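TODO from last week: model Flagellar basal body rod protein N-terminal domain-containing protein.
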Amino acid sequence: MELTQMALYRGIKQKMDWLTQRQSLLSENIANANTPGYVSRDLEKPNFRALVRDVPRINVAATDKGHLQGIRRDGVRDMKDPTKQPYEVTISGNTVSLEQQLMKVSETQADFRLVTNLYRQNVGMLKMAVGRQPGA
């Protein structure tokens, strides 16, 4: 089985692609911080629920009378972000706030580091499962 067929790795790839695109967009915003009329842009967050929803459901087998059946929570609501308003608008109509953009860049860096570590640890577990050392 290839890694691209596993839902976790598809999700990791999707998140890394999104983070790369977001970093590029944020750097464009910072580069245009003094451009009159420039409106800062950002990407919408990926829909993780859609990715999970595409994974086939597997029923858990209760092999002992003491085992509990799993509970499906289909009624969980999606939380929506409030409408985004520009942090500040200059007289020239520019909506880029360097402080906000740098905070988003820092957040993107931290998320990328987190996803990279998640990928590395899961590949290590797969290597361990097939009998190879994780560092090899």
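Done. Confidence is low (pLDDT under 50) at residues 75-83.
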